[in-house]
Design goal:
seven-stranded mixed sheet; 11 helices; ten-stranded antiparallel sheet; about 25% helix; alpha+beta; about 550 residues
């Protein structure tokens, strides 16, 4: 009996890496008799503090105390600093040396974040102390104690969940074990300067995006930056839909995609929310990004780990496209999400290789079960969004970047209808970039649009801003733009885009795909639709030499 207790104690303590760094909290296993592992807080849970976490707010600053191996959940937008101890935040180890980190989640539409106080050997009595501040308006006069999560959200913009069932459901124990295995390999790779290439594979709706963020944060514990290769054109992590891209990540990654849209270092325009419309272009674009990344690392003399997020098309032609992409990538690890439904599972092993090559590959397969995010709402979490709703929020964030007058913390996440109406008017007031139509080629797929026909197909469309002069066989896409208006008399295009002017000077092609901008962001009750008519724009400040007019206020009739 004593031997069994000692064995359980060994398993429940946090692993320590060879270099002395703490690993991801190791989850308790079933004992030899097959009994269930103790829950957190159970007296049998060796290493788990019997104390409860506490959270108080004084003079606008929240103080969160998390005893060893205890968990809390956090929603909303907050600036967080760890004053003492080490805290596991969705895969990232955060300490006082990390400095202040910004945690941004959509409390109304996505699950909360999981935080756990990490305790190593000999640290059972320690606890983690965190300071939390609101983002945006200062809350110096706010002092709260033992308040509800609703009160916290209203007054602070974030909330801390203590004792919620979500603590055991946001991240599964099986995921933690898989991440811990990756962490050990990442420690070794960082010391040996080896390149890690981690592929994320699984069908739609299995939690692949959440696993991807956990993998990125785990790798950031060992590397200063992580590259993210996005090939899911329908629900990308960092860009609007329709692109395959590579983005460099240096900070903790949390929350849903519309909370952390970033400008990629390289992208190609597919122009649809599914690769099915042009699998040849899609496959060629993914292969080009993998090749470019290899050349980039060689030029920089670095070994940046690459996380490869695949799309959920895993049957028929989709499986063949996936195999080709994995052959180009040659992954060192593959996280394969599994389901109780056989139709949602990929073939086991290195399925992308032929039988001979499978025996020679060194790729490590890590199988993790899928998580039904819709079930989290039954435990007190928000209702999960479908793919179309997620895309609408991505387009909303894209619009916000085009017209950056609305801060994230001012968005009514619990009333997106109101926020969308506000964004429409902000788009109408935003001065566009002005581009001579003759300065660019206009293409649909592989074909160019005849001169004089562009006005009939471009107005209110989403276009890819391409740089065809680059040496790549697949043109680099600098970003997306909304053709907001066309002046046929002067042959001018008015485009809203977050791409900076300096980069826009390299655009020589506008590519039109099948991307649909939400009609809710096109229909204004105040301004003409779509957005404006060409005679409502002042003529000053137009032309290629001065592509953006900061004085124009669109939607107002010219004198």
């Amino acid at each position: 009996m004593a031997g069994d207790k000692r064995e359980r104690k060994k398993r429940k303590r946090t692993r320590t890496n060879p270099d002395g760094q703490k690993g991801i909290p190791e989850m308790p296993q079933e004992d030899a008799n097959g009994s269930e592992p103790p829950e957190l807080g159970d007296e049998r849970g060796v290493g788990v503090s019997p104390k409860e976490p506490t959270f108080v707010v004084q003079n606008g600053v929240g103080t969160l105390s998390i005893p060893v191996r205890r968990r809390v959940c956090l929603s909303g937008i907050a600036k967080v600093r760890v004053d003492r101890g080490t805290v596991w935040v969705m895969g990232r180890h955060v300490t006082s040396e990390t400095g202040e980190v910004v945690l941004e989640t959509d409390w109304a539409n996505s699950p909360p974040l999981l935080l756990e106080s990490m305790g190593g050997l000999g640290e059972e009595e320690n606890e983690a102390i965190l300071s939390l501040k609101s983002f945006g308006q200062e809350k110096e006069n706010c002092s709260l104690d033992c308040i509800t999560t609703d009160d916290q959200l209203k007054q602070l913009g974030y909330c801390v969940w203590i004792g919620s069932p979500l603590e055991r459901s946001v991240v599964s124990d099986a995921w933690l074990l898989g991440l811990n295995e990756l962490l050990q390999d990442a420690v070794t790779a960082s010391h040996c300067r080896e390149a890690l290439r981690v592929a994320l594979c699984g069908s739609k709706g299995m939690g692949k995006s959440t696993v991807g963020r956990l993998v990125v944060n785990t790798l950031l514990n060992c590397f200063p930056a992580v590259a993210f290769l996005e090939t899911d054109v329908g629900q990308p992590e960092f860009t609007p839909p329709g692109l395959v891209s590579i983005t460099l990540i240096k900070q903790i990654l949390v929350g849903p995609p519309h909370m952390h849209q970033k400008h990629p270092v390289r992208a190609h325009f597919v122009g649809d929310t599914s690769p099915k419309s042009d699998t040849a272009l899609y496959g060629k674009s993914v292969a080009a990004l993998i090749s470019w990344f290899g050349d980039f690392c060689t030029r920089q003399g670095t070994h940046i780990p690459l996380v490869f997020n695949t799309n959920g098309w895993i049957r028929g032609v989709g499986l063949e496209v996936l195999k080709q992409s994995l052959c180009s990538l040659d992954p060192s690890h593959i996280f394969q999400l599994t389901s109780s439904s056989a139709s949602k599972n990929l073939p086991e092993g290195s399925f992308w290789l032929d039988s001979t090559a499978r025996h020679q590959t060194h790729c490590k397969a890590i199988f993790v079960p899928s998580i039904d995010t819709s079930a989290l709402s039954e435990l007190g979490g928000p209702k999960s969004l479908n793919s179309a709703e997620c895309r609408e929020l991505m387009w909303f964030e894209f619009a916000r970047q085009c017209a950056p007058r609305l801060e994230k913390w001012d968005i009514r996440l619990d009333n997106m209808e109101e926020s969308f109406l506000l964004m429409v008017d902000l788009l109408c007031k935003e001065a566009p970039f002005v581009l001579p139509a003759k300065a660019v080629a206009i293409s649909i797929g592989h074909d160019e649009v005849p001169e004089g026909m562009y006005a009939h197909i471009l107005n209110s469309s989403v276009v890819g801003l391409l740089e065809r002069k680059s040496r790549s066989k697949v043109p680099n896409c600098l970003g997306l733009g909304i053709v907001r208006g066309i002046d046929q008399e002067q042959d001018l295009l008015y485009i809203l885009t977050p791409v900076p002017v300096k980069s826009l000077r390299n655009v020589d092609t506008l590519a039109l795909g099948q991307l649909e901008f939400p009609t809710v962001l096109l229909d204004s009750e105040v301004y003409p639709t779509p957005y404006i008519s060409h005679w409502s724009i002042e003529k000053g400040g137009t032309g290629s030499g001065n592509m953006r007019s900061h004085s124009n206020k669109l939607g107002m009739p010219s004198a």
